[in-house]
Design goal:
heterotrimer, A alpha/beta (336), B mainly alpha (119), C mainly alpha (159), A: 336 residues, alpha/beta, Peroxisomal Thiolase, Chain A, domain 1, 2 domains, 7-stranded mixed beta sheet, 9 helices, 15 strands, 33% helix, 22% strand, C: 159 residues, mainly alpha, 0% strand
């Protein structure tokens, strides 16, 4: 059977693409000093925010981002059909524990740092398929919880590589709805896992760039579009090194790269913040997408945006065993 | 109070420079843990070959404070143990390093109990 | 690794070419600055150790060897405390190996995981994690010293 909504290799064109009726962001203190500070709804004063552990803080941020996004849309929590959420911690505990507090049917997703784009893609499918009318799409990360799980304890002295990225502390949510006005999710391109053999866990951007390039090329080919169709093509968290590599890969594959390309990891910090290659983590694209970019879309600055979440799908165990880093990119197009 | 200060500075500094070169010139998967293990083992080997002792005489704390100095104490303890106690002295390294290990364990524990990570 | 059976269009770049591109673009550490700072911070920490040793000899009346041990122990206490109040990781950020290799760095490598995993309890948290880096250091240090002792013992027998 031919799927009526699938186009080309891996792209879905929604018949009734859901409206993004609200967005909510909660950022950590460092993100609150960055260039996008004005776009965040809440900025935490410190990394604990009154909780006993950083894991608790992350889960609370995510829970608040879910609750507030519903409040903003002026609907009742009971009318939400699903929560889709993901994070970086083992067994996605931040999402599980946040959903425990809310009591709406929950689908936990793991796409590493691509979780925000993945949740928006799957959420749009649920609504377009008629399985629900309101879906919360969320993702979070916390610098300290991610560092301790993936790298070293935070108090342990170490010199970070110049191409390393800084895990963002933050949570973001958008509310998708079958009715409303404003921007809609029009297409989604689900990525495939691509591995170009990078083994350096500090060089996430390099590990993820081929997967993003693959998804972008497939998206454009499937829909027979050129990059200039979009006002903004924004990748999740490739950072400065990954973004340069992505552009090189795309140029080599005859994609016309204009200056409408940007990256959430590059946008979220300024150079004085000394993060080396920029931001990363689920919270990075969640904050920039549900905060800055969504606001710009609401204000009419962008009319057509392609958002590609990037995730590297390794674990600390797989890296210690010498495995290379597989990566994935999921794209959603948002159009007014 | 100030004797040996300059030799300690120079010898200690140079020992650390070797570690910095190890970290910066090899692949990034070399973590502080790898450097520390390499240094303690290196100290044991150099100590056993009699090459570390001149460094200690020359640099004082500059050679004993880096972790290679801990390896040197372990090797020295094992050799002196054999000289004094025969076969059982083979295990004498730990005895010689007992103060350092004991202090590190106790204070490490106390500090971890008292403080919380700042991030 | 790369799946050769992926359907087209895959990227027209081979993993080998990509590796070269990555190496070209990824910024390298600022080697000269790092080496100079490692020398200065490492030298400084060792000189502080020397001052304690001299102090123990002159005012404590300790023999040289005992003073050296006491000096090392003092620096361990300082390193552990600076880790507890959250300063030592900033020192390493500047000094690199100059702050990792002295015993203060060893103390940092013990305290930091113990602090970090404190919430997981006194046994599996602090107790176990205290040795996540100190463990390997002791394993390799003690084992190699026993080998040295054994070789020395055997050579002694032959003499």
């Amino acid at each position: 059977m031919v799927s009526p909504k699938k186009v080309g290799n891996q792209t879905i064109v929604f018949e009734n693409g859901p409206f993004i009726i609200s967005g909510h962001t909660i950022a950590g203190p460092m993100e609150g000093q960055g260039p996008l500070a004005a776009s965040f709804d809440t900025i935490l004063k410190d990394t604990y925010d009154g909780e006993m552990s950083w894991e608790k803080t992350e889960s609370k941020m995510l829970e608040n981002a879910m609750r507030e996004v519903v409040k903003k849309a002026d609907i009742l929590l009971d009318s939400v059909d699903y929560i889709l959420a993901g994070d970086l911690l083992n067994q996605i505990i931040s999402s599980n524990f946040a959903a425990r507090q809310i009591g709406v049917p929950f689908i936990g997703l793991y796409g590493a740092c691509s979780s925000m784009a993945l949740s928006m893609a799957v959420g749009s499918m649920l609504i377009d398929g008629g399985f629900g009318s309101k879906v919360i799409c969320s993702a979070s990360s916390h610098h300290e919880t991610a560092e301790r799980q993936y790298r070293l304890p935070t108090e342990q002295g170490n010199q970070r590589a110049m191409y390393a990225q800084w895990t963002v502390t933050g949570a973001g949510s958008v509310l998708l709805s079958d009715s409303g006005t404003g921007p809609r999710v029009t297409t989604a391109t689900i990525g495939r896992v691509i591995d170009y053999g990078e083994t350096d866990v500090n060089n996430m951007g390099a590990a993820m760039a081929p997967a993003i390039a693959d998804t972008i090329i497939n998206h454009l080919n499937d829909l027979k579009r050129q990059p200039d169709y979009y006002d903004l093509i924004v990748t999740g968290d490739l950072g400065s090194v990954g973004l340069q590599l992505l552009v090189k890969l795309l140029v080599k594959n005859n994609v016309k790269v204009a200056d409408n390309f940007n990256d959430c990891g590059v946008m979220i910090y300024n150079t004085e913040q000394d993060t080396h290659a920029g931001g990363s983590g689920c919270g990075c694209s969640a904050l920039v997408m549900a905060g800055h970019i969504l606001k710009e879309i609401y204000q009419g600055k962008f009319k057509k945006v392609l958002f590609i979440g990037s995730g590297s799908l390794h674990s600390p165990t797989s890296s210690l065993q010498g495995e290379t880093i597989p990566a994935i990119g999921h794209a959603v197009s948002i159009e007014v | 109070m100030l004797e040996m200060l300059i030799p300690a500075f120079i010898v200690g500094g140079l020992i650390c420079v070797i570690g910095q070169l190890m970290m910066d010139l090899t692949k990034a998967s070399l973590t502080p843990a790898h450097v520390l293990v390499t240094y303690v083992t290196g100290g044991v080997i150099l100590g056993a070959l009699g090459l570390y002792k001149p460094l200690v005489e020359l640099g004082g704390a500059g050679a004993t404070i880096p972790l290679s100095g801990f390896g040197y104490v372990l090797a020295k303890g094992a050799i002196e143990g054999v000289e004094e106690n025969g076969f059982l002295g083979v295990f004498g390294g730990t005895e010689a390093a007992a103060v350092g290990i004991g202090v590190a364990v106790l204070f490490g524990y106390l500090v971890a109990v008292v403080f919380n990570p700042k991030g | 690794m790369v799946n050769k059976n992926l359907r087209p269009p895959t990227l027209n770049v081979t993993p080998e070419e990509y590796k070269k591109m990555t190496a070209q673009i990824s910024p390298r550490p600022t080697l000269i600055k790092n080496v100079v700072l490692a020398f200065l911070i490492g030298g400084l920490i060792c000189s502080i150790g020397q001052i304690f040793i001299n102090f123990y000899i002159i005012y404590g009346g300790l023999p040289k060897l005992a003073a050296s041990t006491a000096g090392t122990a003092t620096l361990i206490v300082i390193g552990a405390t600076l880790t507890g109040i959250g300063i030592y990781d900033d020192i390493v950020k500047v000094g690199g190996a100059g702050a990792i290799i002295p015993v203060t760095g060893f103390a940092n490598s013990m305290v930091s995981p113990a602090l970090e995993y404190k919430k997981e309890g006194y046994v599996f948290g602090i107790g176990a994690k205290l040795f996540s880096i100190a463990g390997p250091v002791l394993v390799y240090g003690i084992s190699s010293s026993i080998f040295v002792g054994l070789i020395y013992y055997l050579l002694d027998l032959l003499r």
